[in-house]
Amino acid sequence: MSRSWYILSVFTGYEGKIEKTIRLLLDKKELDSNVIYDVIVPEEEVLDVGKDGGVKIDKKTGKQKTRKVKFLPGYVMLEMDLPELTWKNTCAGLYAIQGVTGFVGNTNRNNRPKPISSDEAKNLLQKCGRIKGEKTVRINFTFNVGDSIKITEGPFASFPGVIKEIFADKEKLSVEVQIFGRSTPVEVTFSQVEKAN
Questions:
Q1: Within its chain, how far is the Cα of 173 from the centroid?
Q2: Please, are residues 45 and 67 in contact by the beta-carbon 8 Å criterion?
Q3: Which of 55, 59, 73, 126 measures 20 to 30 Å from 185, CA to CA?
């Protein structure tokens, strides 16, 4: 067998506690470190946006404020090399941890858990920032269609406008601005606008 990533289903809100418990059991040799190599709570960076719609800035560093947010609440990722014969011992040790409910895709604890595909693992690890890839920081926004905004960056900086459409998956807005007395639709990113007062 070779190393693969597995998804452990846990009680929501207990992800961090279960990660620490698994690491502690590995240190105490109660779980085999030759079987379990890594444990991760899947988190991503989120850019904080203030009530005014503008990006929050850290006063100490002067950089945009970000925070870690779980993007798969109720799940923990495990990198394991699950042995063919003694896999039940490892799984029993994990099932004994309070808050662990099982493995994703495995409805019967008597069956050997199945790993996620390497593509799924790569995507999750990139989103966590564990492996190199296109680093994305999701923006936590509170925009609504019809909101009045002011563009703060780009070629239309300082133009006021009204939100006409929100593309949350692309983190962009379609904004109508007045240019030379005409209403003109402009596409901007969330970080390029702030709510008007």
A1: 22
A2: yes
A3: 55
Instruction: Sort strands 75-80 and 148-151 into parallel, antiparallel or unpaired.
Output: unpaired
- pLDDT, tens digit, for every residue of 68-109? 888 889 999 999 999 888 899 999 999 999 999 999 988 888
pTM above threshold 0.70: no
- Nearest-angstrom CA–CA distance, 107 and 72: 19
- Beta strands 138-140; 43-48: pairing state: parallel
- How high is the pLDDT of residue 190? 80
Report the C-alpha gap between 146 and 136 in whole angstroms.
27
**Which run of H or of E encompasses 3?**
none
The answer for residues whose C-beta is within 8 angstroms of residue 142's C-beta and 6 or more apart is 49, 51, 53
